[in-house]
Amino acid sequence: MASVSVNEILERHGEALQLFTDRVHAVREDQWSAPTPCTEWTVRDLVAHLTSEQLWVEPLVTEGRTVAEVGDAFDCDVLGDDPVAVWDRAADAAREAFEAPGALRRTVNLSYGVSAADAYCAQMVADAVVHAWDLSRAIGADERLPARLVDFASREVGPYAKDLSQSGLFAAPVETAPDADPQTRLLALLGRRA
């Protein structure tokens, strides 16, 4: 993401993690099997996905390991019997890894190749923001996203959003009204109807 400072990336990362954390803590016991806007996932699947994403940060950023070296360590049911506590630990560890001195100036080896760590962190912000909306919708929580996070995520995914649907991991962008608000436009870029 062009012209974004390390401090801004870290601030937005912390805010995005807190937003998702707030939603995870709001999940009722009877909602873990509820559907989400991610049609293949339940609430538990969605939280497990984000938790796994956080668990990857420490080995990739702090330890400098490759995806191949980490292997399938996080392909299992990472949530166990206490999904909220596991999420909290994973989010805290990811935050600490990205905040370590010089961490965002490193490179990381991701599934698609070598990337700057600050770009990886920016991608993680966008992922957490959009999935916070997914989780909010699934559990009936407030779906409004903070404007700063919407702006950051839009600037992050805007340049490559159309390519994401080709990966098979994202729905195709949906059309919006010309006067759609920024949050609606962001969600539509990633195949969601607000």
Description:
- The protein has 194 residues and is mainly alpha-helical.
- The chain has a single domain, classed as Up-down Bundle (Four Helix Bundle (Hemerythrin (Met), subunit A)), CATH 1.20.120.
- Helices cover 56% and strands 4% of the residues.
- It is built from eight helices and two strands.
- Strand 1 and strand 2 form a beta hairpin.
- Helix 1 packs parallel to helix 5 and helix 2 packs antiparallel against helix 5.
- It is globular, with a radius of gyration of 16 Å.
- 33% of the residues are buried.
CATH class: Mainly Alpha
Report the mean per-residue pLDDT as an integer: 92
What best-fitting shape do the alpha-carbon axes yield? globular
Structural category is: mainly alpha
Total discrete domains: 1
Keywords summarizing the entry:
194 residues; mainly alpha; Four Helix Bundle (Hemerythrin (Met), subunit A); two-stranded antiparallel ribbon; 8 helices; 56% helix
Present the secondary structure layout.
Blueprint (H helix, E strand, L loop, with lengths): L5 H21 L16 H20 L4 H4 L12 H17 L7 E4 L2 E4 H23 L7 H11 L3 H4 L17 H8 L5
Antiparallel strand pairs: 1-2
Short description:
The protein is built from eight helices and two strands, in the order ααααββαααα.
